[in-house]
Amino acid sequence: MADQSQYQLFETAAGIAAIGWTGGDITRFRLPAPATPETERAILSHFPGAKRAEPPATIAAVIAAAIRYFEGERVEFFEAPVALGEPPPFFAQVYDHVRTLGWGETTTYGAVARALDARPEHARAVGQAMATNPVPLIIPCHRVLAAGGAIGGFSAPGGSQSKARMLELEGVATGPAQRRFDF
C-alpha cells in the first residue's frame, strides 16, 4: 500500500537517525540519537502503525546524503521531497524560508521574522516553528540562532550540543560565548 506511513532507521557518524515517508514524500526526520530504541520510539510516536520498510530510491538518496552530512561532507537537501501536512500558515512560511539556508549559512529567529514581514515579537513564534520542525536537517533549523548569534535551544537528541556540533561540521564557529541558551 503506497500511501501507508513507512520508516527506516539508519546509522550515521552521530548516532542512529530515522526517516519517515508516505508515498514518495518525507514526512518526518529524526536526528541521530545514541541508541536505536530511542530513535525508533521517537519516529513511531509520530507514525502509529507505520511499518519499517526499505525506502524507495528518492528516500534512499536522502538517507545516503544524511549519512554523508554527518561525516562532514557538504550536503544540501533543497530538492528532498517533503510533505509537511498542514502546519499553521506562519509556520509554513518559516519552514519555506529556513529551507533556503545553505551549508554554513546562519540567521536568527528575529531575522527570520523580519524576512517574513512579521513584527519582532514574532521571533518567539519562529522559535516555536523550529521546535516543532518535523524534518530537521532537511529544513535546517540548526542554522537558526538566538539573538546575538547564541546557539539557543534545540529540541533534537543532545539539545543545544547537537546543534553546535552540526554547525561546527559546517564550519560555523560556536565558541563558549555563543552557547548561551537564551532567546
UniProtKB/TrEMBL annotation:
Pfam families: DNA_binding_1. One of its GO terms (biological process) is methylation. GO terms for molecular function: methylated-DNA-[protein]-cysteine S-methyltransferase activity. Its EC number is 2.1.1.63. Keywords: DNA damage, DNA repair, Methyltransferase, Transferase. It comes from the Bacteria. It catalyses: a 4-O-methyl-thymidine in DNA + L-cysteinyl-[protein] = a thymidine in DNA + S-methyl-L-cysteinyl-[protein]; a 6-O-methyl-2'-deoxyguanosine in DNA + L-cysteinyl-[protein] = S-methyl-L-cysteinyl-[protein] + a 2'-deoxyguanosine in DNA. Residues 89-172 form the Methylated-DNA-[protein]-cysteine S-methyltransferase DNA binding domain. PANTHER family: METHYLATED-DNA--PROTEIN-CYSTEINE METHYLTRANSFERASE. This is Methylated-DNA-[protein]-cysteine S-methyltransferase. The lineage of its organism: Bacteria, Pseudomonadati, Pseudomonadota, Alphaproteobacteria, Sphingomonadales.
